[in-house]
Amino acid sequence: MKRANLQLGLIQLLVVIGAIPAGYLFLSAPDGSKLGMTVEALAGSPFKDYFIPGLYLFIVNGLFNLVASILTLYKFKYSSFIGMALGLSLIVWVSVQVYSVGLTHFLQPTYFIIGIAEIVLSISIFRSEKLKNIINN
Questions:
Q1: pTM value?
Q2: How far apart are CA 14 and CA 18, in angstroms?
Q3: For residues 83 and 37, what is the distance between their CA atoms, to the nearest angstrom?
Q4: In angstroms, what CA-CA distances link 99 with 18, 27, 51, 71?
Q5: Contact indicator for 108, 94 with CB cutoff of 8 Å
Q6: Distances from the Cα of 31 to the Cαs of 38, 41, 45, 49, 53, in angstroms?
Q7: What would the pLDDT profile of 81-108 be if each residue is shown by its tens digit?
Q8: What residue segments make up the domains of the chain, in order of their start?
C-alpha cells in the first residue's frame, strides 16, 4: 500500500514538473512563441491561441497534481478519488490535444500512459483501503 501511494505521488509530481512551466509559458505568451509553437498549429482546434490550454495545463495538470501529490504522499483519505479524476483529466487533455492538432510529439502518448498509470494506482489504493476497512470492522 505504501508503495502505491509513493508511486502515485511521484507520478503526480512528474506531471507537475512538465505542466507548470509549460502552462506558465503559454499564459505569458499565448501565441506559443516561448515554446517554439505558432497559433497556426491550432487551426483545427476550438482555440485561437494557447491561453485557455495554458490555463488548464497550469491549473489542472499543474497545481491540482501538486496538491494531489502531497495528499497522496500523506495518505489523505480521498487521494485515490482525486488521483482517478486527475488521471482521467490527463487522458482527456491528451486526447483533445491529439484530436485538435494531431500527434505531434512523443510526450502525448507518454502522458496518456501516465494518466492510465494514475488511474490504475488510484484504483489499487482504493481497493487496498477498502479491504483494510473490511478487515478492521
A1: 0.89
A2: 7
A3: 30
A4: 21, 22, 18, 32
A5: yes
A6: 6, 10, 14, 6, 11
A7: 999 999 999 999 999 989 888 898 899 9
A8: 2-136
